[in-house]
Specification:
Layout (H helix, E strand, L loop, with lengths): L4 H11 L13 H20 L6 E6 L2 E2 L9 E4 L4 E4 L15 E4 L2 E4 L5 E7 L9 H20 L2 H20 L7 H11 L8
Antiparallel strand pairs: 1-7, 2-3, 3-6, 4-7, 5-6
Helix pairs in contact: 1-3, 2-3, 3-4
């Protein structure tokens, strides 16, 4: 069954025990608040965690900036739908050997010539592309944002925060959010001088 942003908005209102709206453009306070916060909250919640459903990869070609050997002199443009790049590795896999990099605005700089595989959190706007557990998190996050200005009841903020915490916990339990994994371990062992992870 297809889901639309209005459904998400009405689920957020249900958390607060408020009446549903007919449209996000409706001239009522609830609709105005939800319309104001919807896109930014969605992007924020996508960016906050490594949601498995939102992880995409792209092979990008870079340009040598001429900064010199041993520096982060290769520049790569991030995909247009990238909210946040994930840690870079030699082969683009999450358990690959980490490489040095930095981000400046819409560019990635690293010491590896291209093409480079970049894994990133994508800005997925269609609710039908989302994991159901992300939808639950977004519903609760929206409820938190609008709870006080809509209801003026502090207890409703607590109810929304509790719903948010439960939704995030459920997402971690179901592995809908990617954890650090081997890429973090390899990075740590390299820092302490243990090269077994590279073999």
């Amino acid at each position: 069954m297809a889901i639309i942003p209005l459904d998400i908005a009405n689920m957020a209102l249900a958390v607060l025990d408020e009446a549903p709206i007919d449209s996000l453009d409706q001239d009522v306070k609830a609709a105005r608040l939800l319309n104001l916060h919807f896109d930014l909250t969605r992007e924020g919640e996508l960016t906050r965690h490594g949601w498995v459903f939102a992880i995409l990869s792209s092979s990008v070609t870079g340009a040598d900036t001429g900064s010199g050997e041993g520096t982060l002199n290769f520049a790569y443009e991030l995909p247009a739908d990238c909210l946040r790049p994930l840690p870079l590795t030699h082969n683009g896999e999450p358990d690959g050997i980490p490489i040095s990099w930095r981000q400046e605005a819409g560019l990635i700089y690293c010491d590896q010539p291209g093409p480079l595989i970049i894994r990133y959190i994508a800005n997925l706007t269609d609710p039908n592309d989302w994991d159901a557990l992300f939808t639950e998190v977004l519903v609760a996050a929206l409820a938190i944002k609008i709870a006080h200005p809509l209801t003026h009841k502090s207890g409703m903020i607590d109810i929304a925060r509790s719903a948010y915490d439960r939704a995030v916990d459920a997402a971690f339990t179901a592995n809908a959010i990617q954890r650090g994994g081997r890429s973090y371990t390899a990075s740590w062992t390299i820092q302490r001088g243990d090269n077994r992870a590279l073999r």
